[in-house]
């Protein structure tokens, strides 16, 4: 037996933290040790109001008993079962329940373990679908500048955030990008969908002219770009994109990893914008963030295109060891029940006006150059510090944490997405905290 000295219980060295300024963190750690409903508790016993649903995922709030109990029960009954050539009932039950709340016609579900895996799965389904139909020349994938589609190679290839791409070589070939839709010169301080920019969808026509439609498999966009700072689509933009895709036989993929499960006040962004994609990626809120899981929804025609050939053969060579993991499915069913019992898939619509007014009351706060909102999502963009981009927002994040509110920042943008159980007083608290923090920092 190896006889290594035991590491110190709270040694911070070994864990290389994701998307974190590791050295800064380890000098002044910020630790959560428990959570309940709208609040975290820190290791020094302070309550911190969660204005970000963890990482855009804890839509029903923290440690909800129904979800916790479902996980405990399932872990004791059937902890794991393979999903390759074998099944277990709860995975089918959950898929049917998901299909029942999905936009019309999206009645098949492929399970993954994260948003990144959902994106890879969706891109692969798109390519393989065309090939299954005998249209194998459609190999190009079109993303969008400032898009975030997770961190795997397909996702960073179609994604449009330079820091996530520039270190990692040539990425996927055959990828092109639409322009982003952020037009601050026209749309600053817009409440909801901006007026200007619908015609940015026409860039897809130019890409078609450049490459020919017969080479393009799919376009992937976030209906509302979240991680890049809450970029809300201009009025009519998504409908126009849908029409251009239809005209050229290109599949439209909505990445709803953030917007899915009630974030905009509708079950999915597809419902909010009344635009149904061909494929929809989800994760995060599918299990309230409690157990890693993702789900890719596809239209019947896409699923059915694979269901041919000899019946003993696997139709789609793709899947994960944990696809449809029983404990994740149990968490997912309990999450869906919690959403439905408490009306959370549409509660965002009831709160949206209050949320909007509260956020826009920060218009005259120090450093603020733009405010954007839709459903229960908001962004407050700050003037960057001269020569030190991101520093001002990061300082605001640290200060807000000290003052008991968890916000999230990306670049110099504060992005907010509280759990859908948030109350008016808690919205006030979030906004008051940000106002006082901005007044204090350079
Ligand atoms: C739109 C979108 N797609 C994909 C992902 C990646 O999800 P994950 O971190 O679960 O891999 C995210 C994560 O924030 C996201 O916002």
TrEMBL record:
The keyword Transferase applies. PROSITE patterns: AA_TRANSFER_CLASS_3. InterPro entries: Aminotrans_3, Aminotrans_3_PPA_site, PyrdxlP-dep_Trfase, PyrdxlP-dep_Trfase_major, PyrdxlP-dep_Trfase_small. Its cofactor is pyridoxal 5'-phosphate. Pfam families: Aminotran_3. One of its GO terms (biological process) is biotin biosynthetic process. GO terms for molecular function: adenosylmethionine-8-amino-7-oxononanoate transaminase activity; pyridoxal phosphate binding. Belongs to the class-III pyridoxal-phosphate-dependent aminotransferase family. PANTHER family: ADENOSYLMETHIONINE-8-AMINO-7-OXONONANOATE AMINOTRANSFERASE, BETA-ALANINE--PYRUVATE AMINOTRANSFERASE. This is Beta alanine--pyruvate transaminase. It comes from Nitratireductor basaltis.
């Amino acid at each position: 037996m190896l006889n290594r000295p035991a590491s110190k219980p709270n040694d911070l060295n070994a864990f290389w933290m994701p998307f974190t300024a590791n050295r800064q963190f380890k000098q002044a750690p910020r630790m959560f040790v428990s959570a309940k409903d709208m609040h975290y508790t820190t290791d020094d016993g302070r309550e911190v109001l969660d204005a970000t649903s963890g990482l855009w995922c804890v839509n029903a709030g923290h440690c909800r008993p129904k979800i916790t109990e479902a996980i405990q029960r399932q872990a004791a009954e059937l902890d794991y079962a393979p999903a390759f050539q074998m099944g277990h009932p709860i995975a089918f039950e959950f898929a049917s329940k998901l299909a029942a709340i999905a936009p019309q016609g999206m009645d098949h579900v492929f399970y993954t373990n994260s948003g990144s895996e959902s994106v890879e799965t969706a891109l692969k389904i798109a390519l393989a679908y065309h090939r299954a139909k005998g249209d194998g020349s459609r190999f190009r994938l079109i993303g969008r500048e400032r898009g975030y589609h997770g961190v795997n190679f397909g996702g960073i290839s179609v994604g449009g955030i330079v820091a996530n791409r520039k270190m990692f070589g040539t990425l996927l070939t055959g990828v092109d990008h639409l322009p982003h839709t952020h037009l601050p010169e026209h749309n600053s301080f817009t409440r909801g969908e901006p007026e200007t920019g619908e015609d940015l969808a026409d860039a897809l026509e130019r890409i078609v002219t450049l490459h020919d439609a017969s080479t393009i498999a799919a376009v992937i966009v976030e209906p509302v770009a979240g991680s890049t700072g809450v970029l809300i689509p201009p009025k009519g933009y998504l409908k126009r994109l849908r029409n251009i895709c239809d005209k050229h036989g290109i599949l439209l993929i909505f990445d709803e990893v953030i917007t899915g499960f009630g974030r905009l006040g509708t079950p999915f962004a597809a419902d909010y914008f009344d635009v149904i994609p061909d494929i929809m990626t989800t994760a995060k809120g599918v299990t309230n963030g409690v157990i890693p899981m993702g789900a890719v929804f596809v239209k019947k025609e896409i699923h059915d295109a694979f269901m041919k050939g000899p019946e003993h053969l696997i139709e789609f060579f793709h899947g994960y060891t944990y696809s449809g993991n029983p404990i994740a499915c149990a968490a997912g069913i309990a999450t869906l029940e919690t959403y439905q019992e408490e009306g959370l898939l549409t509660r965002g619509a009831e709160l949206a006006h209050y949320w909007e007014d509260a956020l826009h009351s920060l218009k005259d706060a120090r450093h603020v150059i733009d405010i954007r909102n839709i459903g229960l999502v908001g962004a407050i963009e700050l003037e960057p510090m001269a020569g030190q981009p991101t520093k001002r927002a990061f300082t605001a994040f640290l200060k807000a944490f000290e003052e008991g509110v968890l916000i999230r920042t990306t670049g110099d943008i504060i992005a907010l997405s509280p759990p859908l159980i948030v109350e008016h007083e808690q919205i006030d608290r979030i906004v008051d905290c940000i106002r006082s923090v901005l007044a204090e920092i350079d």
